[in-house]
Amino acid sequence: MRHLEWEDLGVKVDGRSLHHLRFADDIVLITPNIEQAERMPAEFDSACGKIGLRLNLTKTMFMKNGLVPSADLCE
Question: Which top-level group of life is the source organism from (predicted)?
Answer without folding.
Answer: Eukaryota
